[in-house]
Fold this protein.
Amino acid sequence: MSPKEWQYDELQQTGVDYTTFEEVQRYDSRMQKLRNIKAEINSLIEFVSPTKESRILEIGTGTGDFAIALSQLSRHVLAVDASRVMLEYAGRKAIEKEAGNIEFCHSGFLTFDESQGPFDIIFSQLALHHLPDFWKSIALKKINNALKPGGKFFLKDVIYPAGIVDFESFFESIIKGVKNTSSAELAKEYIIHIREEFSTLDWIMEALLKKAGFSILEINVENEIIYNYLCSS
Ligand SMILES: C[S@@+](CC[C@H](N)C(=O)[O-])C[C@H]1O[C@@H](n2cnc3c(N)ncnc32)[C@H](O)[C@@H]1O
């Protein structure tokens, strides 16, 4: 079926540009330095408990580390992303790590192939904010439909706490903190995120998840704005 004219074009790039190999390479080396990817993988595994039989979908896989790690513990992983360059980069990593049961596909939250499901586990990290809120709600319903009954959905994203009264000082202090503790380059990325991407408020995200049919099992917040939601369908 051809896409409707009013359909949000999620494969166009919004915010930080991941359409060149150099940008993706820079993103990967920054993330490897900044994040403890191994620890994040372990906590993701604890959250979603994959088994050798699990069929898994990751949306917004980026450079593929999480999809590759989970493919080693499960039957099959479908990893989708809106950036062809990210997918090519992740695909090379998968070959290096001899991950054979992983499939990369150029699609996204609104366009992934549901017929490849139902999935036992779906997860998405730091990617849903690329969609405006209305389209987030459509995406979350599609994710809920693609899960087996009782299947797990793990969502990590940048979310703004509604309790903040003065957002101007809040953002300024976050940007200053990133500049001091990390780099000016990352601070620039935060600025683009706040200005151009669609991170939403905590109560909106909770309502969107519930309206889409999820039960929220757990919410953890890291560094004030990184929210982790563990849900079941
Ligand atoms: C900040 S990166 C996060 C990558 C990875 N999940 C991680 O945790 O490192 C955001 C990713 O989402 C992808 N993306 C943007 N819009 C998307 C969409 N509508 N559907 C799927 N992926 C999308 C980008 O191409 C990029 O790879």
Summary: Residues 16 and 192 are 7 Å apart (CA to CA). The first helix runs from residue 21 to 34. The chain has a mean pLDDT of 94. Residues 21-163+199-232 form a domain with the Rossmann fold fold (CATH 3.40.50.150).
